[in-house]
Design a protein that fits this description.
It is a single chain. This protein has 343 residues and is mostly beta strands. 5% of the residues lie in helices and 44% in strands. It is built from three helices and 23 strands. The strands form four sheets. Strands 1, 2, 7, 8, 9, 11 and 23 form a seven-stranded antiparallel β-sheet that branches. Strands 12, 13, 18, 19, 21 and 22 form a six-stranded antiparallel β-sheet that branches. The protein is globular.
């Protein structure tokens, strides 16, 4: 089961980094997500020592990763610890992707990519997405983001990116082949309010998980899963809630559903419901999304919050929008496998 992105969890140490300003531009989109990079991860020990060593060598101002393969191509990740000043990266951490394959004149590789920096304090990733496709060719084999993250934020250990002189970077790459064809992305017509209410009784007596009945919203079958004692890093401290698309395992030909949804734990005493929004792609390989840290278990059991009444919990899901991506006769083919959605 795959998990969705983290949102604010009131009253716990897992709250998002308030110092992190997720500034977006026409070319760069920043977000936060829980699951790690799908294609490559690089851990750097003694980061400042490496940086100092590079600074003593003329012309060596970056850290290069080992090679990794995506989409039939060989790549390396390049980190500029003090910024790529030649590309306007002064005062920032700069991150680049380089194509290692030798290309003949006239050959090119079209790709899009996103970079990751691991937040060790909050167990999530800052995702920095380049929104424009890049053309890699013999004279331009490297593209990147010169202002990935301000150095003052990266170097501050309280932000979680550089802790005990250790840091982790990652990358996902989507490579287009030469056969640029089309698929169909269409909105699912809204025929109902797309709201499902789930009453969970004897909450405190269940240790494993609760599964809702299957429910159909505008032609697609869904279900909910609640883990009363959490999962992964949140085990014992949080409850976890996930939305599952029952139809997804039967999807073929690259079919996907993009859903904008909201999971809600009802306040049965007052009107202070806990609502967690999400937007995720559901496919045959990604059938479930949601929140590992939906709400702290202590907050659930605190009677003043109104979430648990007579050992009963009320959960709602509202699917606000649905889009279906289907491969037609001339479907867009991409190499490199499934890339999880932006966090």
């Amino acid at each position: 089961m795959r998990r969705g992105r983290r949102s604010t969890v009131k009253g716990t140490k897992m709250e998002p980094n308030s110092k992190l300003n997720l500034v977006h531009t026409d070319e760069v989109f920043r977000s936060v997500r829980e699951h790690p990079p799908a294609h490559y991860t690089m851990k750097i020990e003694s980061f400042n020592s490496v940086k100092a060593t590079l600074g003593s060598i003329a012309g060596q101002d970056r850290i290069e990763s080992t090679e990794f393969n995506v989409g039939g191509r060989t790549w390396i990740l390049c980190i500029y610890p003090t910024g790529n000043k030649g590309d306007g990266g002064h005062g920032h951490l700069s991150i680049y992707l380089k194509l290692e394959d030798e290309l003949e004149d006239g050959d090119d590789v079209m790709a899009t990519f996103r970079f990751f920096i691991y937040d060790q304090k909050r167990d999530n990733y800052l995702v920095i997405q380049d929104l424009k496709d890049k053309r890699f060719y013999s004279w331009k084999a490297e593209w990147g983001i010169s202002k990935a993250l301000e150095l003052c934020i990266f170097n501050d250990a309280s932000n979680g990116f550089l802790v005990n002189d250790r840091c982790v970077f990652g990358a996902e790459v989507l490579v287009f082949n030469e056969e640029k064809k089309l698929g169909d992305l269409s909105m699912v017509q809204k025929k109902s309010n797309r709201l499902y209410k789930w009453k969970i009784e004897q909450f405190c007596k269940q240790n494993d998980k609760f599964l809702s009945s299957n429910f159909t919203l505008d032609g697609h079958s869904w279900s909910l899963c609640l883990r009363p004692h959490g999962t992964s890093f949140g085990t014992g401290n949080f409850i976890s809630v996930f939305l599952h698309l029952n139809d997804a395992p039967q999807f073929g030909g690259g079919k996907k559903i993009l859903a904008e949804y909201e999971l809600c734990i009802k306040d049965q005493v007052g009107q202070k419901d806990l609502k967690r929004p999400g937007t995720s792609w559901f496919s045959s390989s990604e059938t479930s999304w949601g929140f590992r840290s939906m709400l702290a278990l202590d907050e659930v059991k605190n009677s003043s919050n109104g979430y648990l009444k007579n050992d009963t919990l009320m959960i709602e899901v509202h699917i606000k929008n649905m889009f279906v991506l289907q491969a037609g006769t001339d479907a867009l083919k991409r190499l490199g496998g499934s890339v999880p959605p932006i966090g």
